[in-house]
Amino acid sequence: AFVHEMFHVKHFRNIVKNTSMHTFFLTIILHYRREMEGADAGNNYGTENKYFDGGCHCGAVRFRLIGPLTPLLICHCDDCRRISGTSWAATSVPDHCFKITSSSTALRWYDSSSWTKRGFCTSCGSSMFYRMHGEGRTSIAPGALDDNDMLTVRG
Description:
Elements: H1 2-6, H2 9-18, H3 21-37, E1 51-55, E2 62-66, E3 73-75, H4 78-84, E4 88-94, E5 98-100, E6 107-111, E7 116-121, E8 127-132, E9 137-140
Antiparallel strand pairs: 1-2, 2-5, 3-4, 4-9, 6-7, 7-8, 8-9
């Protein structure tokens, strides 16, 4: 259903026929992120130039983001469902707007595929981050933010 809201389905029909669902969702994510990089400030829901702090469940990993934050994108691919137990939602920022503010010894990165890695806390197991190799952006689970009321779901 969200594909209808974000894109013209006709454009993606051939992708669905010729690729796995994981590749299909990655294609959507990349298209969405490219769209958001060119979006005007009104599309980022008032998060421009604001600081957003967050962390894992136990507090061992703390981070800060500098907006704008992208609207939430929800992925339903096999990898995201296996790692989170359900679909995985994320906002994202360019890497230069993402900073670990606590001791990073509890933060580990796991290469979940040949094109991406995920960040989690080794103390409590919170899965918080997602990075595609070479993209220059970090995706952040909205539940890891101290305040996520300003975020909306894009698709």
